[in-house]
Amino acid sequence: MVGPGDVDDELEPEVKDECNTKYGDVIKVVIFEIPGTIPEEAVRIFVEFKRIESAIKAVVDLNGRFFFFFFFKAGFYSIENFANLKLLD
User: Which of 70, 74, 75, 80 could pair with 63 in a Cys bridge, judged by C-beta atoms 3.0 to 4.6 Å apart?
Assistant: First the structure.
């Protein structure tokens, strides 16, 4: 979606709006940039949905999609790690 250094203030609301529209109610979006890693893995976008069905639909639709020179890797993340902002695992 975006590469290292490309995260701006508009990305989070854009992601939230698009996910709300396509998949269902979003509780929270967290964008985490990892310095010193390969560009394909430098930006992680976490989306917490209100319903598991919305999350499943998003993962199925987004995983493996090619967009802006990057392939999406979508999957589920530990809710405990997410809640504690342990976003490197």
Answer: 74
